[in-house]
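Hi P.,

Sorry for the delay on this. The queue was packed all week, but I finally got your sequence through. Input first:
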Amino acid sequence: MQKIVSDYLMKKFAIILVFLIFAGNAAGSVMFDPDLEWKSVRTTHFWIHYHTGLEDAARRLCMISEKVHARLSRDLGWEPYFRTDVVLVDNMDLCNGFAQPMPHNRIQIYISRPELDDVLSNFNDWLELVFLHEYVHILNIDTIRGLPALSRYTLGRCCFPNMFLPIWQVEGNAVYHESRDTVYGRNNSTYTDMVLRSEVASNTLKSLDEASHYPRRWPSGAVPYLYGGLFVEYLEKRFGRDTFARVMTENADNVIPYLVNYNVRLIYRENVSNLWKDWRRELVKRYRSQITTVEKEGLTRYKKITSTGYRTSLPRFHPGGKSVYWVRATGYDSPALMVKSLVSQKETELCDVHYPGSLSVTVDGIAYLADLELWRTFSLYSDIFRFDGSYEQITDRLRALYLDVTPDGRTAVFVRQENDRYSLMKRDLTTGTMTHIIHRTDVQLASPRISPDGKSVVFTMRDRNASTDLVLHDLSGGGFTRLTNDSFSDIHPSWHPNGEKIVFSSDRSGIYNLYELSLKEMRIGRITNLLGGAFNPDVSPGGSSIVFSNYDQEGYNIALMEYPSAYSGRFLLSAARLSSEYFSIPGGDVSLPAPASSYSIWNSVLPTWWYPIYFTEEVYEDKYDNAMGISISGNDTLYRYIYSLSAYIFSFQKRAVIDAQLMISTLYPNILLAYYDESLFYGADKFPWSDANPHPTRRSMEKNLAAGLVFPYMRYLSQHMALLAFKHERSTTDMFSPGSVSQRYVDTLAYSHLAYSYNNARNYSYSISDEDGRSFYVIYDHYMHGTGSDYQFYKVRGEYSEFLPGFWRNNVFMFRVRGGASVGAPDHLVPYNLGRYEKGERGSPPVDEDAFGMRGYPSGFLYGERLAIGAAEYRMPVVQPDLGFSTTPVMLRDIWVVFFAEYGNVWNGGARARDFRSSSGIELHAKFTFGYFIDLSGYVGYARGFADPGETQVYFGVSTLYEGTASHRNKWFDFF
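Then the structure:
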């Protein structure tokens, strides 16, 4: 079944959230296990980076990359000035790859191949297909012409006009080129036909605005790829080969972004919306013809036993035959292991799961799954999990992709992959002993199923010629029998309980239907005729029915049908014996075309771009100073070193500022270093700048140096982060009042900083908030004379939030407690503020304890050494339309309301219950996608504080970027 990696998963895997440290910010991104040993090899146009174990993949990619470059640079009309970095890594048991143009052209490829029922399964050489797809992105985005091209000679790699294009255009062009001139790629896939045919049959074809973004309606993230690829192919066939490359090139000189229709009209003399409608009409005509043909044969009757859609799959009968297990996976909630009694029709959710690829059930009702889990924080591997009242992982780094377990629960057969090599293995689940059936072959293996008598196993293999066939093996030590051998995709074998038949899924008719293979007669017959597709069949213990995953316009659902007595198109097989040597890797040249060297950061770490800094700052009333400078940032291609550096000067004050940050991730933990100084004078300090200054004036300057260690510990459903840091800060405050002498206050603060955070809350495609979990963090700062601090005190603060299900789908009850205490701090460093918003104030939202205040009370009015605030919220979606217009780069995702009540206080000394304050209010939130890729949310709110100094507040905010309040009290709101 298709495995589209959700944003939720990829965020967990690729990005590590690091605490906001001190007054500045530090961001961390750890890509790879620090223990990996990396090598690099240089070709004419590429740097290929790979870790130990991927030498063969690196050798092949050296040849593939130059061949692909020669073709694509000609077809797309562009060649990058510098070499492109390509990173090969085997740290994830899912197929994926991505391209990025900043700070330099870079491709990352996860070496795992697609599953054989996946949208990506139509490939000959996966490494070549994924590289070709990503290199199309590199060439398209790197292309720059006309006035924007001047930026490459001035600011560097900071301007990429082709990044401002709809997703169907960016991904569709890459899908088109992966499919052009071959029978492979998504445009030529039976899977793609299945998706589009189902949507034509149900009249649910996606609109241009949906394909321009990532819609949430099924097939969700695949829409811009499948629709875009076929639409680009249509344009090329109608207007001529390589005309779409001219559309991309035409956009590369645009100073104004998002001129999609303008570019299309220049090349095709037609509006893009009209072209989309023309293509859809042709699409409907094509698939209506297929639908008519299929319906004439008579559609197979079945009963849906689920209605959840999306990726609901992996059905298995209980060995007793009275219930069916499966995995529910939707865009609304957590994937879960489900069971339904076929007697009482009762459906039960057994437990949450992660992202399983196979499921097996024993006679005792124990379920075994091959499921994903993070290993050592940096790698995402598939291991064996067991549900027996609770869900537990029973292997570690086994990398078991598919498994089948005997009904007695003693023996499992599974496929293991590592470094693009596949093994078929048998494991004794009681002792843990493992034996190899096939050891480290380059032939892709999948979906083993043990025969009812336990003597044989049937599995799917994709051979070196891209044929996907069924293979039978005698577990007593016999050889292998290739049961099918043709150009069709034969997948998901399942045994009939008599042991003489195998039911499997195949696209032999152009549609994934179920087939029966008789081992006695060596004949195949088709047993379903569907418009969508049938996958993962399982035959009931009595042989009277089949449960399978049925595809239609909603995605996958579990379906039940009677085992048919008649078949369609039976034909004779020509089985062939295979020796064990068939799976041995063929010999040949295994050397790299150029000498490999140890990875060096110096090929990629130097900055490739800069941008100017300019802003104004008010130094006293009606007097402004201009700041000018530059900022640079960069990283090496393996993200071992990530840095940023900004420097600017104030012309009036004759003062300079330097801000530098560095993260080093070559070891565990990560090392963070930061330096900030805004007290560097390149001329005499003339504060307050004028003896005639009639206004009170205040100036603050900071100089600080910080170092820290970050300890991330990531799991699939939870994230832990610990931070140990030290900061030395010197704060200078100059104050002037008319008629008096200016005064200077210098505070030196040095403190240790300890922090810990935990989060296991979920976020689904249709979530408006974190759901189904909790988050927690605590921060402790200790200021000490012994480290140079003028003051000795400590403070601790933290937050705990619980997210519970609301009354309806994706509604959330949120309960939050915030608290803090400062012990021994001087009066001017008392940290906790009662209020959250201040009337008439606008700017960046506060962070850390500054954001702890209560809504409905003024900010900056009451401070204290202690703080305790509780909040209760009900978060409720109103509409979730995914609403856009044509190729306009804006899509409305969600509108929701939040009802809230808060109770708390700040104080010094002892707390008294009667002094605590309360407030309540309502907020209206909306989330938009801007520029096709960037999600931003905003809100407006009304809050009322019910105790002194409570007030009526009308406030607004835009994500974590900007917020503000109404300047004056609105009498209309006071009515409420």
